[in-house]
Amino acid sequence: MENDILLEAKHIQMTFFDTKDDGLHVLDDISLTLKKKEFVCLIGPSGSGKSTLVRILGGLLEPTGGELVYPDGKEPDPRAIVFQNSNLLPWLPTVDNVALPLLVHGVPKKEARREAENWLQLFGLGDFANEWPNNLSGGMAQRVAIARALIQKPQLLLMDEPLGALDAMTREQISLELMAFREQIDATVLMVTHSISEALLLSDRILIYSGRPARIIDEMKIPFPRPRQPELRDTIEFMSMAKVVRKKIFSQESGQ
Ligand SMILES: Nc1ncnc2c1ncn2[C@@H]1O[C@H](COP(=O)(O)OP(=O)(O)O)[C@@H](O)[C@H]1O
Ligand SMILES: [Mg+2]
Q1: Is the dihedral of CA 187, 192, 196, 197 positive or negative?
Q2: Fewer CB within 10 Å, N or C, the chain?
Q3: For residues 252 and 67, what is the distance between their CA atoms, to the nearest angstrom?
């Protein structure tokens, strides 16, 4: 029988020894389970080690304690990470930035470009395929970065404050686009965000992180059925859920 768990992080600890003699203890004891095709948001204070956890789950950083367990016996493949900065290659036109992961895997250029164009269309950027990345707005560049991750059909998609550098309106617009695409994306998603409404719109579950050294101090299931519509934000259920999340975050920030 197929397992419905993609990965389990068990008692992950991270201490950086390159800063102070006794080390900077960033992650204290992080345990979490990600189910297949689940969308989980992680909310927590700045500097608490959210990016550190993303790098560990992405296989970019080895934790100093604990382990990652894959019930299927193999690591999620592929894993894609979207950062706050788009990190587009300025010498490649937009379409080739999106196509790049496919090209690296040997997909013929014509096919890779066609697929990349489809993704750009989905994000309303069909007319910008041949544009240079430097000519894109911040919101467009971030859409391109997300398209470049999605084109790989990742089994695990990690997003580290992907909309964090954008203005509020662009941010809201892109989160609605992500909500609309959700049904087409098979990935398990872990997204770090500071926005409660983003987390409520997009996720199946919200994890709340403590300050450093970080622990997961609370977890909430988000019961809104899918597909979700933008009007969800105007409902009483949504607003009262936002209030509960805010209260949980606030109560731990003030040490209660
Ligand atoms: N490679 C590293 N070496 C030393 N300290 C690091 C390293 N990476 C992150 N840190 C420190 O770990 C802490 C948590 O960082 P980070 O994971 O980026 O937090 P967050 O994403 O929650 O803001 C910060 O104090 C940061 O300076
Ligand atoms: Mg961070």
Answers
A1: negative
A2: N
A3: 26
Residue 238 lies in a domain: yes
Give the Å distance between the CA of 112 and the centre of ligand 2: 31
| Number of domains the chain contains | 1
- 212: containing domain: 5-71+170-186+195-253
Q: Which atom belonging to ligand 1 lies closest to the Cα atom of 48?
A: 22
* CB distance 114 to 194 below 8 Å: no
Pocket test for ligand 1, best of 19, 24, 46 (most atoms within 8 A of CB): 24
Q: How much is the mean pLDDT over the chain?
A: 94
In a domain, 57, yes or no: yes
Identify the DSSP state of 41: E
Q: What is the pLDDT of residues 31-86, one digit of tens each?
A: 999 999 999 999 998 999 999 999 999 999 999 999 999 999 999 999 999 999 99
Verdict on whether the full-model pTM lies above 0.90: yes
For 253, residues 6+ apart whose C-beta sits below 8 A from its C-beta are 45, 211
